[in-house]
Design brief:
4 helices, mainly alpha
């Protein structure tokens, strides 16, 4: 099950899962000053693949949940 979607803001995603900031840094996605923007808008502007980024974020989320169990 996917926890995150592209309609969420970049800042919201990082506040729920701080480890997402690593992915955002890798792809030069501003999660600080630009954190109030929806992820889909940022990805479109940067010409990044929405499915790729969301899959990476959701994979890290699943891994962190499996580690907690």
């Amino acid at each position: 099950m996917n926890k995150f979607n592209s309609s969420q803001t970049v800042g919201e995603i990082v506040s729920i899962m701080p480890k997402a900031s690593e992915i955002f840094k890798q792809y030069k996605i501003d999660f600080c000053c630009g954190g109030n923007r929806p992820l889909e808008e940022v990805l479109y502007e940067l010409h990044l693949d929405e499915n790729l980024i969301l899959n990476k974020i959701n994979e890290i989320f699943e891994e962190s949940n499996n580690t907690k169990e």
